[in-house]
Design brief:
The protein is an alpha+beta fold. The chain is 65% helix and 14% strand. The chain is built from 5 helices and 3 strands; from the N terminus they run ααβααββα. A 3-stranded antiparallel sheet has the order 1-3-2. Helix 2 crosses helix 4 and helix 2 packs across helix 5. It starts with a helix and ends with a helix. The relative contact order is 0.16.
Length: 98
């Protein structure tokens, strides 16, 4: 039962982190692949200070990781299981139904 409780706790923390619409939007964008902060900002139209705050929360939750290249910072999903959850949500809610 302890393993189940630990797993449920991890999933609950993931879902809590992704429960903010902007953080979920960022994670969905990063599910497509690595993006720079500028690319995320222009594609999602999230005000830069808010974007930084949400990226910090996602980093702290170990959902995203980053790398620096010169003056640019690039983000990508770091948690494969989080990526699978995001892909499932995208499939269920975002794909167009014909």
């Amino acid at each position: 039962m302890d393993d189940l409780q630990a797993s449920v706790f991890r999933v609950a923390e993931l879902l809590k982190t992704l429960s903010h619409s902007d953080r979920l939007l960022i994670a969905c964008a990063l599910a497509k692949g690595e993006m720079s902060v500028g690319q995320i900002q222009s594609e999602l139209s999230i005000y830069q200070p808010n974007l930084s705050r949400h990226l910090t929360v996602l980093k702290a939750a170990r959902i995203v990781t980053f790398r620096k290249e010169g003056l640019s910072v690039f983000y990508r999903l770091s948690d494969e299981k989080a990526g699978q959850v995001i892909a499932a949500l995208h499939h269920i809610y975002c794909e167009r139904k014909e």
